[in-house]
UniProtKB/TrEMBL annotation:
This is Transketolase. It comes from the Bacteria. Residues 13-278 form the Transketolase N-terminal domain. Keywords: Thiamine pyrophosphate. Belongs to the transketolase family. Gene3D superfamilies: 3.40.50.970. The keyword Signal does not apply. It comes from Pontibacter aydingkolensis. Transmembrane segments: none annotated. Its cofactor is thiamine diphosphate.
Length: 285
């Protein structure tokens, strides 16, 4: 069971709070990656407050519960905020983001024992392979839980992603739900300018995957996509959601531009962003 199982209206309010956390975290240390974090907030909130079955009594082996792996680890602010808001650790710890001796480093790591993190990530292209290994382990253990993994579309330029895609289909790893954040942006510009990805849906289908598409900035379309993805597991094919998002979603001056990939807002920009991210009852750390 999901320990929260929130309504769509509740999810929207949580998402606004998470977005407030994101801009405040990166502003406080003048570093971090707000753009992709803001764009993927609704995905993370959906997973942890509606979709996944898990316990906040964190166990590294994750037996009997769904697992999540973040491949594009630089969007750690959204994951840290979501984990804290879901009850894995104290929300106040978000104030230590990217500081010396903090458990909340710029890219997620495991050596400090941060609850919810099972593998260090951020070296792009590796997350899908990790998720497939975990999914196969669950099959060997007769564990019917699912494994989720998020990747950026820019990192699909890495060859390891396609090796993993072939591997998953060949071995019929049908207990994994992978998602690509198809925001069309990467650190140096648009994906069309840097390395055109073409028709990703057709490519993964050609590799033997069952592929769905969804608007990642709308709970009304994202949640049904997750439901359909779950129903599609167990049928001999790995499952992929092509998720369209807008980088910087929720903050108008950040939206749609790669320039906010790894730039923190200044004092004035922070206040403008917070004004746009209204919540019913703000609970800023």
């Amino acid at each position: 069971m999901n320990p929260h199982n929130k309504s769509i209206e509740e999810l929207k309010d949580i998402a606004s709070q998470v977005r407030r956390d994101i801009v405040r975290m990166v502003h406080a240390v003048n570093s971090g990656h707000p753009g992709g974090s803001l764009g993927c907030t609704d995905y993370f909130v959906s997973l942890y407050f509606k979709v996944m079955n898990y316990s906040t009594d964190f166990k590294m082996d994750g037996k009997g519960e769904d697992l999540f792996f973040l491949s594009n680890g630089h969007i750690s602010p959204v994951w840290y905020s979501t984990l804290a808001r879901a009850g894995f650790f104290d929300v106040k710890e978000l104030a230590t983001f990217r500081k010396i001796d903090s458990r909340l480093q710029g890219h997620p790591a495991t050596e400090e024992g941060l609850e919810g993190i099972r593998v260090a990530s951020g070296s792009l292209g590796q997350g899908l392979s990790v998720a497939l290994g975990a999914a196969q382990t669950k099959k060997l253990n007769n564990d019917n839980s699912l494994v989720y993994v998020l990747m950026g579309d820019g990192e699909v330029e890495e060859g390891q992603v396609w090796e993993a895609a072939m591997y998953a289909a060949h071995h019929k790893i049908d207990n994994v739900i992978a998602t690509i954040d198809r925001n069309g942006q990467q650190i140096d510009g648009s994906t069309n300018e840097v390395m055109s990805l073409g028709d990703l849906k057709a490519k993964f289908e050609a590799f033997g995957w069952h592929v769905l598409e969804a608007n990642g900035n709308s709970f009304e379309t994202l949640l049904p996509a997750f439901d359909e993805a779950k129903k599609s597991t167990g049928h001999g094919k790995p499952v992929m959601i092509m998720m369209d998002t807008e980088m910087g979603y929720g903050v108008d001056f950040m939206m749609g531009s790669h320039k906010w990939h790894g730039v923190a807002p200044n004092d004035e920009q922070l206040q403008i962003a917070l004004q746009q991210l209204a919540v019913q009852v703000a609970s800023d750390y």
